[in-house]
């Protein structure tokens, strides 16, 4: 073997046989640096998922034990669509707690409150009623607009719902319409009389763009920019946190609310879409012309819980893309809260 190759081989053997410095020689990594990296990675993931949309994405998540909050576009206003029904439910349960409403109260299905789909057919039956509890199930599990507007009326109207939310100290969330009038605004019409079905059909005949927009799930940009019936992701996060903490409702009402939401039948590919099978989730979705939302509480394997809100607006790529954004963000938050290093209580970041 040539001398220079022997020397090179011995040098290499000497390099790899020499003991490496112990871990202690480097010292422990600064805890703040580890934490910053974990947070930065989470927020970077939120940003990466947001590029799946050609609209605007907002994400807010919170560890319900420590209060740590992380957000992307957390203070941006988004149309709530049917996610506003979480606020309606809270107002109804607050009335139950005050003794003004009972869950077994039967509410009349006033034909003037019927819109389309769902249980709209029941409103034509003379004397038809449903219990408050059943209406809550229909509203939160099936997102039935007809059931919702019966409850909005019983809640005292949109302003009473907003007042309930504001009293909890939640800012950045407002309810201005029942569902029928929310949909009227989305269609750009302001009917003065007639049933919802008559008015909607007339508007669609007069403006075929409305039909195209619905079929292709395209955004109504003017509607998306209106301040009415909007919330920031952080405001919705604050509302769901107020419920979960027991600060807003009695223990019985809180339990019933989340039990109903745990059986949500809409949005199977959203918050729950990428979570491990069997993960307990209580959530409520919202969808309307380029808008896709989901808000909920997720339980981790060790029993800890976190809240998650994902809003997408002004998106023209379709519900599959929006659903994936919500699912990806929810899974990133799940992994972060489950595996990231210990975090300081109350730490917050709003991107």
From TrEMBL:
<dbReference type="InterPro" id="IPR045155">
    <property type="entry name" value="Beta-lactam_cat"/>
</dbReference>
<dbReference type="InterPro" id="IPR012338">
    <property type="entry name" value="Beta-lactam/transpept-like"/>
</dbReference>
<dbReference type="Pfam" id="PF13354">
    <property type="entry name" value="Beta-lactamase2"/>
</dbReference>
<comment type="similarity">
    <text>Belongs to the class-A beta-lactamase family.</text>
</comment>
<protein>
    <recommendedName>
        <fullName>beta-lactamase</fullName>
        <ecNumber>3.5.2.6</ecNumber>
    </recommendedName>
</protein>
<dbReference type="GO" id="GO:0046677">
    <property type="term" value="P:response to antibiotic"/>
</dbReference>
<dbReference type="InterPro" id="IPR000871">
    <property type="entry name" value="Beta-lactam_class-A"/>
</dbReference>
<dbReference type="GO" id="GO:0030655">
    <property type="term" value="P:beta-lactam antibiotic catabolic process"/>
</dbReference>
<feature type="domain" description="Beta-lactamase class A catalytic">
    <location>
        <begin position="58"/>
        <end position="312"/>
    </location>
</feature>
<keyword id="KW-0732">Signal</keyword>
<feature type="signal peptide">
    <location>
        <begin position="1"/>
        <end position="23"/>
    </location>
</feature>
<dbReference type="GO" id="GO:0008800">
    <property type="term" value="F:beta-lactamase activity"/>
</dbReference>
């Amino acid at each position: 073997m040539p001398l220079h190759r022997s020397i090179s081989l011995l040098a290499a053997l000497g390099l790899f046989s020499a003991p490496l410095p112990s871990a202690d020689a480097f010292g422990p990594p600064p805890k703040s640096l580890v934490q910053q990296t974990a947070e930065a990675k989470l927020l970077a993931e939120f940003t990466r998922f947001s590029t799946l949309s050609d609209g605007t994405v907002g994400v807010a998540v919170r560890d319900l034990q420590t209060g740590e909050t992380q957000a992307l576009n957390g203070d941006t206003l988004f149309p709530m669509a049917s996610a506003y029904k979480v606020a309606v439910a809270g107002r109804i349960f607050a009335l139950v707690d005050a003794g003004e409403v009972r869950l077994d109260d039967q509410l009349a299905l006033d034909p003037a409150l019927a819109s389309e789909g769902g249980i709209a057919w029941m409103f034509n039956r003379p004397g038809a009623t449903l219990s408050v509890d059943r209406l809550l199930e229909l509203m939160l599990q099936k997102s039935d607009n007809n059931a919702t507007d019966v409850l909005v009326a019983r809640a005292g109207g949109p302003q009473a719902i907003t007042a309930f939310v504001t009293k909890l100290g939640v800012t950045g969330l407002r309810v201005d319409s029942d569902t029928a009038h929310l949909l009227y605004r989305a269609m750009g019409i302001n009917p003065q009389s007639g049933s919802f079905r008559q008015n909607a059909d007339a508007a669609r005949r007069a403006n075929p763009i409305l039909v195209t927009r619905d079929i292709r799930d395209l955004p109504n940009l003017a509607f998306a920019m209106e301040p009415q019936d909007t919330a920031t992701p952080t405001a919705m996060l604050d509302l769901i946190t107020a419920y979960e903490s027991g600060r807003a409702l009695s223990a019985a009402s809180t339990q019933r609310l989340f039990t109903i939401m745990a059986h949500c039948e809409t949005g199977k590919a959203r918050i729950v879409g990428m979570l491990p099978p069997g993960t307990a989730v209580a959530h409520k979705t919202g969808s309307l012309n380029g808008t896709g939302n989901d808000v909920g509480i997720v339980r981790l394997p060790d029993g800890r819980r976190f809240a998650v809100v994902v809003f997408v607006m002004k998106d023209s790529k379709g519900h599959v893309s929006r659903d994936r954004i919500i699912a990806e963000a929810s899974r990133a938050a799940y992994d972060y809260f489950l595996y990231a290093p210990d975090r300081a209580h109350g730490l917050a970041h709003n991107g």
